[in-house]
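Just curious: can you write a single protein's sequence together with how it folds?
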Amino acid sequence: MDIKRVKLTRNYVVFIYLIVLTVSGFSSNAIANSLSISVGWNKPPYVIEERNSGFELDMVSAIFANMGYSVSYVYVPFGRSNTLIKVKKVDAALTMNEHMDIEGLVLSEPYISYQNAAISLKGRSIEIDSISDLKNHSIVAFQNASVVLGDEYRKAAKKSPLYLELPNQRKQVEMLLKGKVDFVVMDINIFNYLSNELIGSSHMANVVIHRLFPKTTYHIAFTDEKLMLAFNSAMSTYKQTKEYKNLVAKYEFLY
């Protein structure tokens, strides 16, 4: 037997083995540093599905990038963001709060807040003083509004002559602008963005913003408590940066 040939073959096998270890190491690291996150359907300017961006996604992606993770988003109807995480198909779920089904999950500190309001056309001159006054009017609202906005709103919605909750928020805005409902209940930044997109210019001067609701804060749901705590720390740091201030300015938020 040729000793040199045996040594060469052995060295070759060792070389291939080291390559396999290296590649598998990179592969496992890539998997470990990649997160999948469920998120509700299109909610511009927070979530712009066709661009895989928006204020909410840009912020969350930046925070996780600072933690060393890349993120992919799985889009589901709003209100079902927790469905995939409960069967462990995703690592986290956006836009969650204590009123939703979070059994077995852990919630981050609030990462975003929505300012919901009842919005009517100024030309209709509708006057209301409280949430309960909505019961006399037709309403279109975001999906799960009757869960998120509390008991008084839920009671008013049940007595409303027409009450709809739609996942497509563009259609909600269209219904108000076409006079098909008295009120749209939604976040003011979403209304501003979509009405501007539909009409081609700002429509805020032609509507009345009835600020009946407190801000609604949202959390990210995790199955891994350590990951949740690490996110909290990274988020706190990120929100002190110039990058975060620039992001707020980029999306022209109203308050």
